[in-house]
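assembly run, all chains below
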Amino acid sequence: GAGVSQSPSNKVTEKGKDVELRCDPISGHTALYWYRQSLGQGLEFLIYFQGNSAPDKSGLPSDRFSAERTGGSVSTLTIQRTQQEDSAVYLCASSFRQALQGDTQYFGPGTRLTVL
Amino acid sequence: AQKVTQAQTEISVVEKEDVTLDCVYETRDTTYYLFWYKQPPSGELVFLIRRNSFDEQNEISGRYSWNFQKSTSSFNFTITASQVVDSAVYFCALSVTNTGNQFYFGTGTSLTVIP
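ok done. output:
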């Protein structure tokens, strides 16, 4: 079946602009996760959704970052007033069961964001 | 606090050699899960294995094997008879019971297999 998809695959923007990154999880997966991978770094957890709710937003780096999920499916990560330090690959993952710790996460191909 | 350490930043081996990638984790939870993912040059993370804290049996899948030792908090990954297609960045990750399945990733080990 189809895996996790993300769009756009690449995004180049100017400092100060807003960007929206989209994630479409595997059909039937109830949990969705966002991570950020900076050049040469590991993956930094940003936020997760159980259904449409985000129980913990403490991983978001600043109040310029927000995310939502509608219909228990597609999620959008929005970065307002982008800064150069926001340049990274943003990865989305989904897992089948809701709030079951240890459930395998399946990752999308990522969106490479470059802020000039 | 949870932490995963992959001390090997880069490894190079010649094709057909065996290679072991180290992963050391820290957690005070008694129930946790450990994962390995492969990130080839294309960039997409590929799931390799999931192991829970109550199952210390080693696992073998083809040329891949995993050695889980709670006594040393390690979950090492061995590739036998390495191939060029094994060249990738490998990440070890930890999930604990109290943080909503948030994964804690190591910084990855970049493996290059030289033909």
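Chain A is about 0% helix and 45% strand.

The first strand of chain A starts at residue 5 and ends at 7.

not gonna interpret more than that til we talk
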